[in-house]
Amino acid sequence: MKFLSGMPLSSFTTLRVGGVAKHFCKPADRDELRRAMFFAMEKGLELFPLGRGANTVFGNFEGLVLNTRRLRGMKVKRMGKALLVEATAGENLSEIVKLSLEANLEGFYKLAGFPATVGGAVAMNAGAFGYEVSRHLTHVEFMDWEGRLHRVKACELEFSYRSSPFPELGIVVSAVFEIPFFRGDIREDYRAIVSKRKKTQPINLPTSGSTFKNPPGDYAGRLLERVGMKGYRLGGVAFSELHANFLVNLGGGTYGQVVKIIEEAKKRVYQEFGISLEEEVRLVEGSGAYGWKI
Ligand SMILES: Cc1cc2nc3c(=O)[nH]c(=O)nc-3n(C[C@H](O)[C@H](O)[C@H](O)COP(=O)(O)OP(=O)(O)OC[C@H]3O[C@@H](n4cnc5c(N)ncnc54)[C@H](O)[C@@H]3O)c2cc1C
Fold first, then answer.
1. 74-180 adopts what CATH topology?
2. Same fold across 4-70 and 74-180
């Protein structure tokens, strides 16, 4: 495994905005993952685990970006009334969605239509249409910040709305799901979900999905629309005309513009409603703030 220096990051995120990582690596197995951790530890660098980059926007990052995309693989086993799926962190979440459709499994298909790795989805506790990735998660294997591997039961970890103990606790290496077979037919619901996404989300433009979490009892998109942020543009970055909570890159967008447009949106929503919106998207820059200290 090579440690690369000065790696441009825009092509590693779905918003396609980005600065440069001081160090960058792509481990292919657990040994290389541990080596990357020790590299960061020895150099006193912060380390940022990166999956598909669908919820991440980079400025210039002074630490080590560890891309999990080479940690791929999936094992499937039948267990009575369910399928047991063990997937490695860098695997596409969509592979499990595909399997759910083929085997007519409960719930997981609701995560169709957005980019994610298994590790990123577990870390974010990604969810849609009332279903969250933690729902049928039974075990998580992770490497702690001293390079030790752990396998823990999901019920011992705290998952909540778009929140999990990762990556603070360590790097997710693999995840096990036990997804029951569904008695009815999931295909109609699946088609409705995909069609709704196409109609309401700017999936033909570079985007990072929801910018803010929904505040309790409300929708960030509704609040943003009310304060005139839908379609609001700042340089190459804008809040989508289709979905007020989705940032899009209309061409040449920069990290600085992302930060400014987010500040503007938060200020307006606070002034109008007294609500402090919390970012769902991870903004990563410098050597602190959103990096993860070993
Ligand atoms: C068009 C579009 C639609 C979307 N719709 C939804 C939606 O409906 N619901 C939803 O929840 N999200 C949605 N998202 C956001 C995004 O897809 C999810 O948050 C997804 O789970 C991010 O996965 P990722 O691999 O891209 O994570 P990244 O962006 O790479 O990382 C996200 C966070 O997870 C951490 N992380 C990544 N991998 C690991 C690992 N192996 N171990 C520990 N930590 C790790 C990162 O450090 C970072 O903090 C959407 C995004 C887009 C672009």
1. 3.30.465
2. no
Look at domain 4-70 and name its CATH class: alpha beta
pTM check: above 0.90: yes
Residues touching ligand 1 (Cβ under 6 Å) are: 14, 48-56, 68, 89, 114-117, 119-121, 123-124, 126-128, 166-167, 171-172, 201, 203, 207-209, 282
Q: What is the chain's pLDDT, residue by residue, as a tens digit (294 residues)?
A: 999 999 999 999 999 998 999 999 999 999 999 999 999 999 989 999 999 999 999 999 999 999 999 999 999 999 999 999 999 999 999 999 999 999 999 999 999 999 999 999 999 999 999 999 999 999 999 999 989 999 999 999 999 999 999 999 999 999 999 999 999 999 999 999 999 999 988 988 999 999 999 999 999 999 999 999 999 999 999 999 999 999 999 999 999 999 999 999 999 999 999 999 999 999 998 865 443 443
Output phi, psi for 221, to 5 deg.
-60, -40
Tokens at 270, concatenated: 């606070």
- Cα–Cα nearest to 70, from 114, 32, 111, 126: 32
240 given a catalytic annotation? no
Instruction: Give the whole-angstrom CA distance, residue 255 versus residue 19.
Output: 7
- Annotated catalytic residue within 52, 210, 240, 282: 210
**Pick the catalytic residue: 46, 91, 141, 280?**
280
Each domain of the chain, given as residue ranges in start order, spans 4-70, 74-180, 203-281
Domain 203-281: state its class.
alpha beta
Pocket test for ligand 1, best of 10, 55, 293 (most atoms within 8 A of CB): 55
The rounded distance, in Å, linking the Cα atoms of 206 and 242 is 13
Best residue among 25, 48, 65, 124 to mutate for probing ligand 1's pocket (most ligand atoms within 8 Å of CB) is 124
What the block records as the tokens of 22 is 């001081």
